[in-house]
Amino acid sequence: MVRSRREPVHRFAHEAMATAFEIFIAGKDRDYAGQAAGAAFDEIDRLERLFSRFDPSSETSRIGRLEPGASLRIGLETAEVLGLAAFVQAETGGAFDVNYLGAGRKPGRGAGRRPRPLAALLRIDADGLGFEAARRPPRGRAAAPALDLDLGAIGKGYALDAALEVLRTWNIDNVLLHAGTSTALADGPGPAASGRGRGWPVGAGGAPGRASGPGRVLLRRRSLSGSGTEVKGSHIADPRTGRPAGGHIAAWASHPSAAVSDALSTAFMVMSTAEVAAFCRRHPAVWALVKTSPETCRIFNAGTMAAKPTARTRRRPR
User: Fold this and answer.
1) Which of 74, 88, 151, 172 could pair with 263 in a Cys bridge, judged by C-beta atoms 3.0 to 4.6 Å apart?
2) What is the model's pLDDT at position 231?
3) For 79-118, what is each residue's pLDDT tens digit?
4) Are residues 129 and 140 in the same domain?
5) What is the 3-state secondary structure of the chain?
6) Does residue 37 register a pLDDT over 60?
7) Could you tell me the residue range of the domain that residue 88 belongs to?
8) Is residue 224 a part of any domain in this protein?
């Protein structure tokens, strides 16, 4: 609990989706906040059962086992996350791909064949009863492309969005959520007393002993996601080439949706700085920070976020 001119802030943690989720709730009774957090964690667990590629009964796994031309009834959540993944893939020129495993895109492997858009592999249809995922058959005598979906780079963000909606039904309006510290989502003025704060402080662009960005931004009704090589090394592969990401050593993306920022932080790692700049010009709701070296970075759509850059930060206008 935080004191001294601050609202009481209660922390709750939960393991799901192979990471640690945390929820910080300000200004509420602890018992009530704990019940609300428990309901949000239940929603995250439910989505994990739908999205997990390691659970053979999940909708994601069952889609991967579809024969060409076959179809499967799916829920709204899976339809939404696949539709969003297809959109981000198209908007980033293939830099984001939830079927990178099916295409054989792993760090250290060769380029192989050019990856196909998700929309060319799957068709999502809606009717009065729900949604149906159909695996598109190949053309002519061509072999059917492999399908092995991994929603890890978008599913955690989607789960945070869903958890926040649950918390709002509990009248929780001042809260910070994060999934493994890689994606954060916040609403409300933050821990400052009497609602005078401008948001929840979250780190961005900094590294131990190095100042190459604002270091901290304030989130309110927004999400922030980060990816990088400094901790895990070259663990992100470029879906377009199969080689380790070479665009940036770290990247952050912010958007009102945690699912979107989650996907974009991964895509911005492999995109060139010019590609990120062009993307942000097309999408003014997106704030981006990419590290081009350990001590320098570029920021795009700076007016979207409340951040004070260091002297070495290079800004770019909207």
Assistant:
1) 88
2) 45
3) 999 999 999 999 999 999 999 887 765 544 444 456 789 9
4) yes
5) CCCCCECCEEEEEEEECCEEEEEEEECCCHHHHHHHHHHHHHHHHHHHHHHCCCCCCCHHHHHHCCCCCCEEEECHHHHHHHHHHHHHHHHCCCCCCCCCCCCCCCCCCCCCCCCCCHHHHEEEEEECCEEEEEECCCCCCCCCCCCCCCCHHHHHHHHHHHHHHHHHHCCCCCEEEEECCCEEEEECCCCEHHHCCCCEEEEEEEECCEEEEEEEEEECCEEEEEEECCCCCCCCECCCCCCECCCCCEEEEEECCHHHHHHHHHHHHHCCHHHHHHHHHHCCCCEEEEEEECCEEEEECHHHCEECCCCCEEECCC
6) yes
7) 59-150
8) no
